[in-house]
TrEMBL record:
Enzyme Commission identifier(s): 3.2.1.26
The organism of origin for this protein: Brassica carinata
Cross-referenced InterPro entries: 6-hairpin_glycosidase_sf (IPR008928), 6hp_glycosidase-like_sf (IPR012341), Glyco_hydro_100 (IPR024746)
Protein name: Alkaline/neutral invertase
Top-rank taxon, per record: Eukaryota
Entry keyword annotation includes Hydrolase: yes
Pfam families cross-referenced by the UniProt entry: Glyco_hydro_100
Amino acid sequence: MDLPPDLARTTLIRPFSNRPTIFNNTHRLIPSCFRQLNLLPNWVSEKKKSISVSLREFSISVVETNTSDKTFERVVGLNPNPLVIERIHNGEETIGESVSGGEIIGNKIEKSEETLVREESEAEKEAWRILEDAVVRYCGSPVGTVAANDPGDKLPLNYDQVFIRDFVPSALAFLLKGEGEIVRNFLLHTLQLQSWEKTVDCYSPGQGLMPASFKVRTVALDENTTEEVLDPDFGESAIGRVAPVDSGLWWIILLRAYGKLTGDFSLQERIDVQTGIKLIMNLCLADGFDMFPTLLVTDGSCMIDRRMGIHGHPLEIQSLFYSALRCSREMLSVNDSSNNLVRAINNRLSALSFHIREYYWVDIRKINEIYRYKTEEYSTDATNKFNIYPEQIPPWLMDWIPEQGGYLLGNLQPAHMDFRFFTLGNFWSVVSSLSTPKQNEAILNLIEAKWDDIIGNMPLKICYPALEYDDWRIITGSDPKNTPWSYHNSGSWPTLLWQFTLACMKMGRPELAEKALALAEKRLMADRWPEYYDTRSGKFIGKQSRLYQTWTVAGFLTSKLLLANPEMASKLFWEEDYELLDICVCGLSKSGRKKCSRVAAKTQILVR
Ligand code: GLC
């Protein structure tokens, strides 16, 4: 397949096309030779040398050098003073950790010295054991973690695969513990899987799509030889055949986190990695028919990967999209070939934040405004721009909305507002500053006011409230897994804890996260780390819940580590970007017809 010159990959993918490792026409497999390219030969670390790796030629030249030369570290991405976390032992037992170092290399060299000693609880010790057992190896190197390792599960379906979204909390736990190798390998191997071939029947998904998951398979080359290959799933095997829109966004978010937490910025600077970012961004920013700056997607294209009535412009995708745009803006090297893309990213960031802040926000005042909306307004300056009929306000909301606090809607379409509260999307809006500082505060106020509904016995409800009766029948298609107050339909997912923790820490309210974490810690180990909980208050282990679910374990560990390392946590969230607020694409238009609603709304909405 021909790629535009600026998107052409390095020769990393060439040997792949030369090697017939595809065993059927719907699977694209990455042969084991790839791992060699990105690994540092053992002899290099034995003797200090400078190394220059030419990806284009596959050649590695090694030159002896004096030890003060930083070229070596910069080229191969070694951190000369990495974050060191030592386990503290008392005889056989690990009783705590000591953290020190944390030097950033690359262009910016910073130092952070921090030492803390913390005792690990029994739950944490068990969680680390489970997480380490979940590690998947490819040609001997760690490349990810399986979704679940439930010994009682006779039908693991695809839970024995490495899911891109599920790996994020595992990756953060490893990074916060000072282990970068598995994350680096994951990022590079999934990059090799990025879609560039037909995968679903005779139709190709857009270039740049990242798989939902992958599996390491052993295939026979001949009678005597086997080879390990990576087998991705872009949705062609997944239930519902939905392309995972969030995978590429998570990949970009994790790439930034890897740089921030290890100081190894050389990874994001590599040509193939830069190309990967561009492919994802080009796919997300491609022109279509849509009138909104939000990303238009099908139902089930994110963590909620079954039909739940979230097609259109669901908040989860919008907040991950916004975060990925911000990450890309930070990581893309600006040059002639990326100028246009960077401009498009800036414009989209600005338009997207305006749209979400202005139209997705609801609090008691806004609901009252919608309640009194006039409809069928035909003009560019209509108040009720999306023609929302007030009868759409669900009765539960009128009683539920607290005096203090508010949240971002689940979805917005012409004549349709999805008033359900979606947890992940609201948390990522806080973390990425998609919402205003005041809105961020209000989101946490709402969680506090509605603690029993959103947290209850087990943090955290994936959404609130559940779809019931005819809504359940029509919207989920009578899905027996998504019955009211179960699974995606308002089940409680402990993995969401780490994102709640990050949002609370950003807003200076770690005590809220600690309270939720304490609840989880009381039950998770005893309940064998379930994937999700059921019922209104999250009292029961989910009907079809897997046990020993990796992202439950990893989410718990990541929350613990974030709370113990506020300085590291702060590298993972964003503050308000005032420069973005000043960019208004409408201002560039010469057309007198266009009336910019943003100018009028700016003072009240953008920074209020
Ligand atoms: C379920 C979840 C999805 C997760 C997968 C693996 O399909 O809905 O979000 O990635 O399980 O854990």
